[in-house]
Specification:
The protein is an alpha+beta fold. It folds into three domains: 3-49, Ubiquitin-associated (UBA) domain (Helicase, Ruva Protein, domain 3), CATH 1.10.8.10; 56-107 and 154-192, Elongation factor Ts, dimerisation domain (Tetrahydropterin Synthase, Chain A), CATH 3.30.479; 113-152, Orthogonal Bundle (GTP Cyclohydrolase I, Chain A, domain 1), CATH 1.10.286. Helix content is 56%, strand content 14%. The protein is built from eight helices and three strands. The protein has helices at 3-13, 17-26, 31-49, 80-83, 86-102, 114-130, 135-153, 168-179; strands at residues 56-64, 69-77, 184-192. It has a three-stranded antiparallel β-sheet with strand order 1-2-3. Helix 5 packs antiparallel against helix 8 (168-179). The termini are far apart.
């Protein structure tokens, strides 16, 4: 195994050396396939952890210079050991910056009140009915528009401002796999002057 390749994949994924070697062997030495394998394994680990309870964590505040915009986030984990970890604190910083920059309204899709969803869907349906589109086409368009709406208003569905190949939910899954504990976003607030 090429040590520089292992080092590169470790820097990109944060996975352990043994896991990287295993993924490279499984991928026949192809680094892109190995990263995909590591990503799938991380998602499996995160899925197993979702049944656990995240009662610890921290409150993190970010103030954007020159001080007219800020965000606070409650980031939960399972133990105070992880809550004190620098990587966990960095995740809280990244999420607070995301909130300040993108102004989400909800953490998850499930948090959106039903009346807000219905109002949004009705708006799109009326718009396309006026254009005379067939009902089945309208429903597909509305579904696409709602997906875009979720990406705008739900923190977990937003594209991460530091890497547009990931959503915030992908970032949480990665950190859950790396830190070995369930991580959730409890709540947040954004302030502006």
């Amino acid at each position: 195994m090429d040590a520089s390749l292992i080092k590169q994949i470790r820097e990109e994924t944060g996975a352990g050396i043994v896991d990287i070697k295993s993924a490279l062997e499984e991928a026949g030495g192809d680094p892109d396939k190995a990263k995909e394998i590591l990503k799938k394994r991380g998602a499996q680990i995160a899925a197993k952890k979702q049944e656990r309870e995240a009662k610890e964590g921290l409150v993190y505040a970010y103030i954007h210079p020159p001080g007219k915009l800020g965000a606070m986030v409650v980031l939960n984990c399972e133990t105070d050991f992880v809550a004190k970890n620098e990587e966990f604190k960095e995740l809280a910083h990244q999420i607070a910056m995301q909130i300040a920059a993108m102004n989400p309204q909800y953490v998850n899709i499930e948090d959106i009140p039903e009346e807000v969803l219905e109002k949004e869907k009705s708006f799109y349906r009326e718009q396309f009915e006026k254009e005379g589109k067939p009902q089945d086409v309208i429903e597909k368009i509305v579904e696409g528009k709602m997906q875009k709406f979720y990406e705008e208003v739900c923190l977990m569905e937003q594209v991460w401002i530091q890497d547009d190949s990931k959503k915030i939910k992908d970032l949480i899954v990665e950190k859950t796999a790396k830190l070995g504990e369930k991580i959730t976003i409890g709540k947040f607030v954004r302030f502006t002057v």
